[in-house]
Amino acid sequence: MMFNFLNREVRAVISDSSLISSVLIYFIIAISVVNFVLSGMTSTIAVIAGSVFSWIILLLISVNFGYQIYFRDFLDGSIDKILLSGCSLNIFMLIKLFVHWVFIVLPIGVLSALNIKILLNSPLSYSMILSLAVFSTFIIACFISFSTLIAFRAKLGNMLLGIISIPLLMPLLIFISAVSISQQIPYNIEAIFRILGGSCLVLVVVIPFINSLIIKEVGE
Amino acid sequence: MILPINLNVSDLLVKRGGITLIQSFSVNLVPHDCCILTGPNGSGKTTLLRTIAGLLKPSWGKVDLNTDSESKPMIAYQGHQDALTEQMTVIENLIFYQKLYKSDSEQMHSLIQKFSIDYLNQPVSHLSAGQKKRASLCCHFLAKASLWIFDEPATNLDQSSISVLTQEIKKLKDRGAIVLIATHSPQLYSFISNLNVSLEP
Description:
The complex is a heterodimer of chains A (about 220) and B (about 200).
Chain A: H1 2-15, H2 17-38, H3 43-76, H4 78-84, H5 89-120, H6 126-153, H7 158-182, H8 189-218
Chain B: E1 6-16, E2 19-29, E3 34-38, H1 45-53, E4 60-66, E5 75-78, H2 90-100, H3 105-114, H4 129-140, E6 147-151, H5 159-174, E7 178-182, E8 195-198
Parallel strand pairs in B: 3-7, 3-8, 5-6, 6-7
Antiparallel strand pairs in B: 1-2, 1-4
Helix pairs in contact in B: 2-4
């Protein structure tokens, strides 16, 4: 069953050339904007500006394309058949989350991180930056899936999704910041990975479960 | 093998957006029953079918599927949408539903022949409305359900496809399934149906 869902989602994403090309075009524009803004800035301001720009662009692209991935089944009516088939909705939502993360959020996150590393010559190693991008993009993909479905349930439009996604991420960011400060984590990269890894493990279980509960109510 | 069930709908009240669409609706159906639901646009046919399928929650009343077996009876619902993934080919969609419903490939190939689906390798997005409907019905009939719900199934179909559709529905009924069909053309199913329900707006 899991492979059946995975096969379907991957085929749908790969066959959708407009989706892949749109992500690439968005990304090229985003990289150009970030690099243009960073040129001529001092390193401290450039790090902050580059990170903020990249984060906002990543979030907007992920929200926009997450909308397409999660709503396709509602628009074509296949969600009704999947709901009535008696298969595990948790697994279905886990696969959706995985595909959205792997095909949309992760590539953009990794390329954004590498762009900033090359441009700013950050002291963090490539492997460190890539690892941070992998964990943090997964957390972003989890929250986008949740907020997308909540927005659909509340019958909100696509534009509003981006706005409601940001506050939804805030509690997690505040929690991570609070733990980081208490543990003096700016100097302990291993502890940062533990927190991010722990958050990912919790989210990978909790988010598909919550999403499937939302889906069951969406029919109304 | 179809699991025999009894469908008891009692005193159903369904509201959407504060408007009452279905009020005090009751019906009891047993295996081999085929119920035709008619009514003008906006009379609540789709809402009623979705509520019976369990896709909508009623404001009041109950929908019970009673069976002697311990296993949970399955419901197959064919709505207005085709339930096909546009980016995939017809055969990819069919294989997905074959695996979802755990049906065998022989049944799938038999349905492909009956509905004359000779465009298996074309993406769904390239098909006409009628071709999509035939592929969609083919996927639908792969289910192993006790209660079969059809919402205007003959829309966009040509005469020969309608004939295949009605024959397939008759087979389901003969095998002991309960069939519910919402339609504006009840005469198409007159040789199968044993109960007609008309909804008023």
